[in-house]
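explain this.
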Amino acid sequence: DYLQTLFGFFNAPLFATFILGMFWKRSTPHAGWSGLVVGTLSAVTVWVMSLAGVFTLPGQGTAFLAATVGFVADIIVSIVVSLFTEPKPAAELVRLVYSETPKEHLVDPLEKDLPWYRRTVPLGMTVLAIT
């Protein structure tokens, strides 16, 4: 329970910040930090409410709820703060935000000369076949 609780506190808000920042070019650094703090605090609040007996959930229910609340709070706060802060120029977002990265930067031109076990697609297919 301890590890799941900590993951709910920190990993869910961090994942929300990462995903929003990677795929939404309007996201700002202030929004990322604000969302991370509010998401973490809201997850901790859910956990404290559970300890106080406000609600009880079986098994890992509290950790799951805390993670969900932390994720959603992070996304909402990040979007709101982003709308009130100035975004970075598009030129600074190349290779950081997917929509601002030219397609030629997504392919390694030297990969074709590498052996199969060092290339992305054959290695990924091998891992998928093994698992």
Observations:
- The chain has a mean pLDDT of 91.
- The radius of gyration is 20 Å.
- DSSP finds four helices and no strands in the chain.
